Amino acid sequence: MGDERDGRSSGVVAVTGAAGLIGHATRLALSGAGCRVQGHAGPPHLRPADDDQSGGDVLDPAFVWGELADDAILAEAFDGASTVIHLAGPASVAASFADPAGAVAAHAAGTASVVRAAARSGTVRRVVVASSAEVYGIPQTERVAEGHPLDPLTPYAAGKLGAEAAARSLAYALDLELVLLRPFTVYGPRSPAWSLVGSTVRRALSGDDVTMTSLDRVRDLTHVDDVAALFMTAALAPLPHQVLTLNVCTGIGTSVADLVRSALRAAGSPAEIHEAAAGPDPTREEVLAGRRPASSDPFRLVGDPTLAETTLGWVARTHLDAGVDGMVAEVKRQQP
User: Fold this and answer.
1) Residue 140 and residue 82 in contact, taking contact as beta carbons nearer than 8 Å
2) What are the Cα distances from residue 298, in Å, to 133, 135, 222, 293, 302?
3) Dihedral Cα 55, 57, 60, 66, nearest 10 deg
4) How many CA atoms lie within 13 A of 319 on its CB side?
5) 259: closest CA among 192, 206, 327?
6) Residue 50's pLDDT band (cuts 50, 70, 90)
7) Which terminus of the chain faces fewer neighbouring Cβ atoms within 10 Å, N or C?
8) pLDDT for 9-34, tens place per residue?
């Protein structure tokens, strides 16, 4: 692999947020493709203790722990790389209401710091930034394409849209290639317990009946291995334009009820599914404590993956049942 500005990697790719759900899978994909992977593991407060080997691979000395505002940390993380994949930042949409300023700063200012550091490295030619489907707000179409109006309704989404704007403006000013990727609902074996799929799998494994609200709510569930494959492709493949924006999605809508059925099947559980009545909207105090208001939460959020396929040849390949099977197996493995 060469250094040319046609988008081909030199074989050294730096990843920020490398200890996260997408970061872990992306590192594995890049390593499997023969790339040397280095970068930023996460913020210092998330660093495991030295004797905690549960995430031992992220403790490789090629990855540094630190804040994105620290120029020295980013300089070390990006040293010698030709491409940066920026995945760092808080993942919880609800929590962004408890600290809106922090959420916006982490995503928007953090991305600006990353792109500036990439340009200052002298070797980085391309930056791939993780945005979010949350920037679309409440969808106006059955499947959301990249040209859909942008209407962020959460501090998290506002931070992601700010990150896109910062990255785009700096990419043009600093002559960098840029790919902005907007994942929809990402899941996989490392999904947090509070996430939709993570919590559903754990309920299915409890053996009890599963009771949830809004069983007919629909999401586009994309397995993290497929997501990682697109981040890798965006980092390595030739680009048709200097700046490219793509959805990361399957194009298939899955209801909460169908997700629960898949989880119960994978768990081998005969439990029944019940729908609970939705409670009242959270109060102002509850929103400020980190509960998401219903008005900001789309009933249906399904993406259109056409552009990712036509420009980079990427298609999500993991069927929901296979992905849920893997999650059930991993949660079982972790249980005492």
Assistant:
1) no
2) 11, 12, 17, 11, 10
3) -40
4) 4
5) 327
6) low
7) C
8) 458 999 999 999 999 999 999 999 99
